[in-house]
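ok trying again, last paste got cut off:
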Amino acid sequence: MTPRTWLIVGHGSVGSALAQRIQASGGRVLVYDPAPRVAVTVGRRLERLAQDDGPVDLVLSCVPPSVAEQVPSLIGPVVRNGSLLLEWNTVSPEAKQAIAFASTCEVLDVALLDTLDANGARPRVAISGVRAEAHRSLLESLGFHVDIAGSAPGEAALLKYARSIFMKSLEGLILEYVALTEPIDHHGIVAASVENNLGKQTMGFLDLLVATNRRHARRRAGELADAVQVFEARGASIAVAKAVVPLLEHAAQVWQQADAPAEDATLRELIVYLEKHL
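nice, full thing came through this time. structure:
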C-alpha cells in the first residue's frame, strides 16, 4: 500500500515528537512552519503550502493556540474532501467547533492527556468527532492509547481542560514544594515521608513535572489560564487553579532570566534555581 502523507503544521515539541512517531509507523512526513521552534530533522520541510504540495491525507495542527483558528484556511490548497485534520492544539471547545466549521475537510478533535516527554510511554489521548471511532486505529498505530470523548469537536477539548485544572495546579504546588524544602530538608526526611505515602512512581512523575516546566512553563501557564476561564464561564468553583495561574506565569518569567539553567540542566540545578528565584 502507498504510505499515507501526513502534513504537520507547527513544529514545536509536540509536532517534532509526532513526526518521529509517524515516520516510525511508515508514514510520509511533510512539515510546514515558517519559524520552527524545534529543528526539523524528520520529513521534508515545505516553504509554502500550495496545490503542488498536495493533496495530503492527514494534517496535524500543532501550532500555538493563538493561531489555531487560522489553520483551516492555511491548509485549503493541500487538502481534499477525503483528508482529515487532526486538531491537536489545546484550545477551548468553542475554538475547536469554529475550526471544524471553517474546515473544508473532516476535523477530529484530539486532546493529549499525557506527557510526550516520558521515554517508552504509550500516551493517552481523547478524541471526538462524527467519525471518532473510525479513526481510533489511526492514532493507535502511532502508539497512543485512545479514548472516545464524544461525537462532536470540542468534547475532547473540554476533558483536556478538566485535566489541566488538576495537572497544572499540581505542577504549581510541586514547584513551590521543591523551592520550599530545598534549603531545609538536607537529609531528604520530608521527601521520604511524601514518597512513603505516594510511592516512587508518583515521585518520579513529580520530578518530571519540575524538569519539563523549564521547557514548557509559558505554554502550561496559558493552558491553565484558559481552562480557568472556560470553567468559570460554566459556573464552576475553581479557586485553587485560579490561584496557581500567577505562580506558573512567574515561573515562566524566572526561566527566561539570563542566568537560568539550560533546558537540559539536572533536576538538582533546576530546584536550586527555583529556591532562589521563585
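cool. Residues 49 and 210 are 38 Å apart (CA to CA). The radius of gyration is 20 Å.
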